[in-house]
Amino acid sequence: MSTLTGHEERERLVQPGSGKTHVLTIGLEDYYHGATFNRLIPRGHWHRFEPRLERSTQATLALLDEYGIKATFFALGWVADKMPELIREVVARGHDLASKGYYHRHIRDFSRGEFREDLARAREALERAGGRRIVGYRVAQLGLSPVDLWALDVLAEEGYEFDSSLRPTFRAYESEPWRRFVHRHEFAGRTLWEFPVSSASILGWHVPIAGANYFRQFPHALVQRGVRGWDREYPHPFVMYFHTWELDPEQPRITAAPMYARVRQYRNLDRMGLILRHYFERYRFTSIASYLGLATAEALVPAQHEAARQSASRSSGESHLPEYAGRTSGPTALDGGESGFDPAVDTSAAGHGGSRTLVSVVVPCYNEELILPYLANTLAGVEVALAARYEFRFVLVDDGSHDGTWAAMQRLFGDRPNFTMVRHPHNKGVAAGVMTGIQHATTEIVCSIDCDCTYDPRELAKMVPMLAPGVDVVTASPYHPNGRVLNVPGWRLFLSKGVTQLYRLVLHQKLCTYTACFRVYRRSAVIDIPLERTGFIGVTELLGRLDLAGSRIAEYPTTLEVRILGRSKMRILRTIIGHLVLLQRLAWLRMTAPAPHPRPVPRVGTPATATAGVGEVVDGTS
After folding, report:
1. What is the DSSP-derived secondary structure letter of residue 457?
2. Residues 6+ apart with CB under 8 A from 608
3. Cβ within 8 Å of residue 33, ≥6 positions away
4. CATH topology of 6-317 equal to that of 357-593?
5. Which candidate in 75, 80, 517, 604 could, as Cys together with 125 as Cys, close a disulfide (CB 3.0–4.6 Å)?
6. How is the chain split into domains, by residue range?
7. 525 to each of 142, 338, 546, 552, 590, how far by Cα in Å?
8. How large is the average pLDDT for residues 481-494?
9. Which residues 6+ apart lie within 8 Å of 254 measured at CB?
């Protein structure tokens, strides 16, 4: 590791512009990739979001072309695998391509060995897509603190030429002030150029002013002054950066994020283009490789380049949807003798030799224009992940929306033969939407899911087999001991669990969750159920009436996540009152109605995971 003083290090720098030419770096990533939403959006859900990276990158490239600027693009290996043509476009426009790791991960998520593996995986993906040698790196999340400098040693060992991961903030590098500027890091006989993100010195404290969020949050006049001071005082380049998504002010809003995260992500997005133009008009910028005079942009040898192009082409043709590991064994078709099978309703996959089970999925939608692209990508993932077992038919119900929901449905699903769209003339409520969907379904197995996908629909792979002979409903249960709840407010959990305890007193079957919309129904068992309530309360009423009628209900423990996009339509006070009224009604029905006739008990030998009886909770994994 280099131990030179700041003055000695400065003498060793490559200084083509003597402080007049600065460095521009850009994070090539989409709005849902970054650290702001890591807690809310797992990488396994990235495929659900509307991809906007191409449009934001094209806007970035156009802006750079306007000013004749070449920059260093730090890209994720994941992006290279999913959008290799975009990576090739960046390279073709003459920009430097570098790595930001495969996924968007903090350096402290890695051991040394895991870090090496991630470096190799990302480098391979980027070289395959871009046909260029990858010798630059930036850590994806936050920056390198003094205790993380081992990563620079690994980068040097792996043959990287430069890095831009340091963010000297406050007094983090007080004992090594030269780390605030471009310097050489030496380890095991190898050299790595480090380009720290630039900062202003205020009363001995280092405050980042290098772009991105700092440009959008700090007073512009203060940042301008800091940049002018750097350009005037230091021979070192000012290392500036931003992200492609910052030139996309119309990106979807992640409403589940806390206030500080939404401010960090969205504040002044509409001004970012003007802010960047201010600096592009006043200063000269270039890429890191050009600044250092490195021959890192040269193409791979012809044989390597052709192999990379072919591999990238294959990758772009493959589905980017994650494989679902939750497939289970067990019955996948209904037994016509004991299940109430309706011969008029199709239950086998025509054209597939009956090898796949036909399943209808009902999705009620009310004012969900903004979330429908997320739904479309999620359902596409379900079809791919479960294709070996199930053939899906989807019924989308526009419940009297007064935004652009119906038009968005037509645009996203109108040309797909396995989608049926139904429209209520006015809003009736989520339960009415579910019942309308069930009425329009053409299969005996009918599932209902929420439009916002707060439950993972791929869990249907485990829930559908539980609809065994004698079971009429399989309901999701996040409040089961083996279930989970992620990022849902505590007050909501308190109310939901309190209501659950009251329903356990009134109904026969002692479930852990009565309110989930995510369910699998036997169509013939629910098609004629009369509902007095058609909104959120009606979802619970439907389960309660089935319970009182003697239906067998299986409960599947699963995970409930907070709604990511848009706002919930539920009115809390109205919902609480509605549950109390429904509890009174169900208690009266239980006291006055004749004893229900239980359905036949499943035959001996039926798999245990598919034979929940009355009041029985089926164990499972979340």
Report:
1. G
2. none
3. 46, 76, 104, 245
4. no
5. 80
6. 6-317, 357-593
7. 54, 12, 8, 10, 19
8. 82
9. 32, 37, 40, 41, 261, 262, 265, 564, 565
Strands 390-399 and 357-365: parallel
Cα within 13 Å of Cα(34), Cβ side: 23
C-alpha to C-alpha distance for 620 and 622, rounded to whole angstroms:
7
CA gyration radius, the chain: 29
Token reading at 231: 């350009």
**Residue 235 contacts residue 19 (beta carbons within 8 Å):** yes
Q: Please say whether the structural domain 357-593 has been given the CATH code 3.40.50.2300.
A: no
pLDDT at 567: 67
3-state SS, residue 332? coil
Q: Kindly give, in sequence order, each residue whose CB lies less than 8 Å from that of residue 102, ignoring residues fewer than 6 positions away.
A: 76, 77, 78, 118, 121, 122, 125
| DSSP H helices in 318-458 | 372-385, 405-413, 430-440
- Between 83-92, 275-284, 316-325, the lowest mean confidence (pLDDT) is in 316-325
Which residue, among 238, 229, 138, has the nearest Cα to 181 in the 3D structure?
A: 238
For the purposes of burial, counting CB atoms within 10 Å of the CB of 131, is it exposed (0-12), middle (13-18) or buried (19 or more)?
buried
User: How much is the mean pLDDT over the chain?
Assistant: 83
Report the relative pairing of strands 445-448 and 519-522 from DSSP bridges: antiparallel
b (16+ CB within 10 A) / e for 418-429: ebbbbebeebbb
259-306 pLDDT, tens digit each: 988 999 999 999 999 999 999 999 999 999 999 988 644 555 444 445
CA–CA separation, 561 and 488 (whole Å): 7
Contact call for residues 583 and 500 (beta carbons, < 8 A): no
Q: Is 259 helix (H, G, I), strand (E, B) or coil?
A: helix
Query: Do residues 461 and 542 make contact, with C-beta atoms less than 8 angstroms apart?
Result: no
In the block, tokens 């609809």 appear at 467
Using 50, 70 and 90 to split pLDDT, how confident is the model at 360? very high
Render pLDDT for 371-405 as a digit per residue (tens, 0 to 9). 999 999 999 999 999 999 999 999 999 999 999 99
The architecture (CATH level 2) of 6-317 comes to: Alpha-Beta Barrel (3.20)
Model pLDDT for residues 192-251, shown as the tens digit of each residue: 999 999 998 887 788 888 888 899 999 999 999 999 999 999 989 999 999 999 999 999
Q: What is the pLDDT of residue 141?
A: 82
